[in-house]
Design goal:
Two copies of one chain form a homodimer.
Chain A (H helix, E strand, L loop, with lengths): L13 H4 L3 E5 L11 H9 L4 E5 L5 E2 L2 E2 L13 E4 L3 H14 L3 E4 L9 H17 L2 E3 L5 E4 L4 E4 L13 E5 L2 H13 L4 E6 L8 H9 L6 E6 L5 H14 L3 E5 L13 H5 L2 H11 L3 E3 L2 H11 L10 E5 L2 H13 L9 H10 L10 E2 L10 H11 L5 E5 L7 H14 L3 E5 L11 H8 L4 E2 L2 H22 L1 H4 L11 H5 L4 E2 L1 H10 L7 E4 L2 H11 L3 E6 L12 E5 L2 H18 L7 E6 L5 E10 L3 E8 L2 H4 L4 E5 L4 H10 L17 H17 L6 E9 L4 E3 L2 E4 L1
Parallel strand pairs in A: 1-2, 1-5, 5-6, 6-7, 10-11, 10-12, 12-13, 13-14, 15-16, 15-17, 17-18, 18-19
Antiparallel strand pairs in A: 3-4, 8-9, 8-11, 20-30, 21-24, 22-23, 22-24, 25-26, 25-28, 26-27, 28-29, 28-30
Helix pairs in contact in A: 3-4, 6-7, 10-16, 11-16, 12-13, 13-14, 14-15, 20-21, 23-24
Amino acid sequence: MASRAFDTDTSGIEFFYDPRSIAIIGASRNPRKPGGRPLVALQKRGYSGSVFPVNPQYDEVAGLVCYPTIVDVPGDVDMAIVSVPASSVLDVLEQCGEKGVKAVVLFSAGFAEVGAEGEALQRRMGEIASANDFRILGPNCLGLMNIGNSVMASFAHIVDLEPVPGSLGLVTQSGAFGAMIYAEANAARVGCSSFASVGNEADTEFSDFVAYLLEDPATEVIGGYLEGARDGGKLRRVAERALERGKPIVMLKVGRTPSGARAASSHTGSLAGDDQIYDAFFRQFGIVRIEALSELTAFAIVHGGRRSFRGKRVAILSGSGGYGVMVADKCESLGLIVPELSEATREKLQRFLPDFGSSRNPIDLTAQAAVIPHMLENCFRTLVEDEDIDIILAHAIFHEPNAMKIAQEIVKIYESTSKAIVIMTPVRADFGPEADHIALLRTARVPVLSDGLGAATAVARLAWYQEKVAQAGSRERDSRPLATASAPDVAAALRGSDGLSEHRSKRILESYGIPITREALATSGDAAVRLARELGYPVALKVQSAAIAHKTEAGGIRLQLTSDDEVRAAYAEILANVERAAPDAEVEGVLVQEMLEGGVEVILGATRDPVFGHAIMFGLGGIFVEVLRDVSFRIAPLTRDDAREMVSEVKGHRVLECVRGRPPVDADAIVDAILAVSRLVTDHREDISELDINPLVVFPKGAKAADALIRS
Amino acid sequence: MASRAFDTDTSGIEFFYDPRSIAIIGASRNPRKPGGRPLVALQKRGYSGSVFPVNPQYDEVAGLVCYPTIVDVPGDVDMAIVSVPASSVLDVLEQCGEKGVKAVVLFSAGFAEVGAEGEALQRRMGEIASANDFRILGPNCLGLMNIGNSVMASFAHIVDLEPVPGSLGLVTQSGAFGAMIYAEANAARVGCSSFASVGNEADTEFSDFVAYLLEDPATEVIGGYLEGARDGGKLRRVAERALERGKPIVMLKVGRTPSGARAASSHTGSLAGDDQIYDAFFRQFGIVRIEALSELTAFAIVHGGRRSFRGKRVAILSGSGGYGVMVADKCESLGLIVPELSEATREKLQRFLPDFGSSRNPIDLTAQAAVIPHMLENCFRTLVEDEDIDIILAHAIFHEPNAMKIAQEIVKIYESTSKAIVIMTPVRADFGPEADHIALLRTARVPVLSDGLGAATAVARLAWYQEKVAQAGSRERDSRPLATASAPDVAAALRGSDGLSEHRSKRILESYGIPITREALATSGDAAVRLARELGYPVALKVQSAAIAHKTEAGGIRLQLTSDDEVRAAYAEILANVERAAPDAEVEGVLVQEMLEGGVEVILGATRDPVFGHAIMFGLGGIFVEVLRDVSFRIAPLTRDDAREMVSEVKGHRVLECVRGRPPVDADAIVDAILAVSRLVTDHREDISELDINPLVVFPKGAKAADALIRS
């Protein structure tokens, strides 16, 4: 990854976040109107650049000279906020071009979202922007705010809120939802550095603003609301860059409910729902996917503690045994470890705990923690000193008169260690004044959260993210070289046909280093018998035709043939069946193939996703795929880590280990085959639309593709 | 169920909730001490009965005459609150007996929770209570509050909170956690009718207080925090009664993480973790299990709307498309239905929506909903009139100056319909003053929740609960009579042995109406051959011995034998293998059994749980159980509905339907077999500890037990 240049184009985006002057075209005297609200907010928050209202109806708005058109404005204008009827937008954009504007924030609606005519207008906008070398945010967006320099280029109601200082940068494809996220974060005292609502993405898109925030020193966490990426490749490059920078992207993407399967003739294609692909993409590139708004603020709070986790071992301190167990359950369900404590640590803890407390993890301090001086502090200290604990989650009870004293103890501990500590205790999530002890903790950057389950979730996600960052750092080193493609005819074979027969598909796989069954093509019964003898009985016979994707249904397969007579009979029978089932199919011949004994069947595949390109699939054979749809995806090209994760991610992965006394199968052989598929579809991205290896039979040593299908 | 009398003993519990007089033994002048806090709270809240401080150190406490012992108190004392050192507790209890006290709330700690000596003291307490005809709550508890009559018999900090009016009755096995739940509910303006912390349950237990609340008119929802039921049978009767009464019990039970598998020789036993059994119990008896504190308040709020759902079809209205999709995803993941709307409804909606809104469910009103008059009202009206919608989840945006107007519109709609409506909009969850529009909605009983995902979850849980209530009402009618046991020797066969051989186990199953394979026992090679001929080839041979639970491992099984010679050889081989593997095993003979062709393998079983009695298990064969542990449990005796749910609940249940062109298997045959197992273990509850039918082979018509094991 380190070798790939960061080629995402963010040129021009800086004028949205840091314009030296702003014109408001369609300026209004009504502070509730889109043309009025930003004007008021810019003034109220003290934007230091020049502000120029533009509206032919007025000479003056909000105490400023108002100009009839932007061309009339004296001096340079970096940003134009445009709030005019859809019908005037193109003219206004031309004027912006004439004036040399760099960035247009286009509030106006009525474009691609309302139909074909609007779409055409929107395309025209992009052309005007390109021709005039400016960028457009929108149309149909709520605009942008950059809190640090008071660029309040938005008409969302959130511009009226008193900003909370903070470093969460928001980019959203839904204005309304984005504004809700901003408001909820502020209520939880997670301040935002900036907010960008990208609207219809006529010119700039979601990824451009995320890319900019990666380099923005005021932003430590990027929160995104995504409905669909316009350019999956660009989002991938941005995500890779984010991992390099170690700046987390936390993403809310809705739409888990499948909106109907796609038409696909491969297994892989039919299993690749949009959400599965996005989910795989997020996992692969370290984007933290969340399910609820509150998870973003919780993540930002825990991340704000600025601690690297050395591992995933969590100690839980709680004033109630039950609460501790509840949090422990959540931790373990999310992949954190809540280990038994060492005897030494337990003995130390017991010295501080009341006799009805518990020194077993989760540690039950009992309600006495709020009363007995230094008890919480002493227990904290013990856990900080325990080398086998990486993260401390503490449920603290702050009752008067001890609340401040306990908070001070916690701060002292926090500042004395580099371990991660998270405090769980009720915190107000509105704009009211906060308790003194909470303020003290927050000022010292101690993460404090109301919701214990939310705290556990945020810690688990951050631990996962930190692992992803570490993995990204060592990706290059980890990838072994792949077998080089030695088949110059791959592209030729694929071109000009809808798909390839099993035999031809397997030849291509073989050229990419994937072992296949021993087999040969027969075009007569006699030839089939001869080949069967050469291979050794038992054998299988399978009709070969690019037109027959489902050979079994066409009666084109006979298995476990043990004699010359059986082979001869099967050959004739298959041809007769196929003649009936698919009279027009061009038959290449009948494949004579060795029968594989033992092994575990898995499925590998690839499908071309319209957003992200080829997605690679892995699944276990039989009911795991057919009944449980238990498969994993990653976006090609893959690293070895990606392939390994695909294998370990399926729910039934234990099947690959020892089951019923069978030795474990060769997981490396699966990983090698996955990587070979990734290489193949990457080399031939234009030619291959779908690929199935179903099954790949995996043995204690090695694997063989027993059937395959490639479609162009 | 209706025929079963409600035999849970709640006699005496009423004196905890409604005492006419209260003595506080160990009364303190310090309002922060356990002996001081309730005294202050009783006075502050205006408890109308007599209050008697008892403490030999004082003549007067809090302006009341203080007595040296409870015996010195003039007049009757219904309740004694006891806060004295552990060493004095037994004496004090004897005095309470002498005085004729009815209910003792025992705060004191230092009993079963600290070791064997404390346990002995605790047993003694129970004896004193029985002998003197009073009941004890505790010891080691936070006590009890009944808000309606100001019985503040608790020293938890929550007695100091200004009570919020409400009808949530809390019963908790953890005082500290219970107090957290109470405080969080109050902060969310979900008032509690009462609070009971049951502590060590020396005399009364969790179920007693839940049982009382079932009959308490002030309580509409019961919230429980449970660590483990002392008496599973009692909890079951209480839960059944709750379903009859239609009063929901919402339960938080932690401890999902397995604490180590039990020693068990059956499959079923090894799969039956504590949490699986509790979870099954909750599902079976309509107890709403929650994962987080916030779910209890959300449930109470939605339940407080007092609407019966006619179905599970949800329409979602939202001011942001993305938010609507997020809520829709959650609804569908929890079993609610978010249907396409009819053309008629969509046309009506389109009249009210802006042209960039969406009339598809979830319906996107856009942010204009906060601005355009009557838009929300009109859309609501349209959905209320749509017969295909049962529940309306509406995300409402309240911005000034329209907030009150919109709230009034919602109330008008709500009062005009009996459909369920839930509003999602930010609500304060602390004790601060609430916005006028929220207060208006709440007063009209319109459920209002901040968290859209929480709202969807609460609606889904209430829909599930209402279905359970309806199902309970029709349980009797639904149960078909079972085959009567015709084998008088079942008990005899089971007694005096650790377990039964397959053959003997199957004979018992057969007597309960479970079809078994055709088979007979051979004690010589010649007999085996004769039996094989009678059954018809192919056959299986299996060694029969109560001492050999795992026949395959002992080399005691030969399958697919097709000739006399094979049978004769297999017979000899099996005996030789078993002689080597288990020389001391008493061998009954070798079972000659038909081979079953086709069919789907499932597993049925039963295991005796120490809390709930026999749990019945169902699972699909092979990897579903071995790798995925995909099984379902219910507590015997079962209804037909229970058995049906067990079958549909496993993740792989689609295997029973059409797979790969195979016809669906006979699900009724599985249900019959499950019910027969339930009947068998219920009839012989003392004799059977574990039972496995592994596999039961299920065909398109009928099923047969192919192997079985019963252990006593």
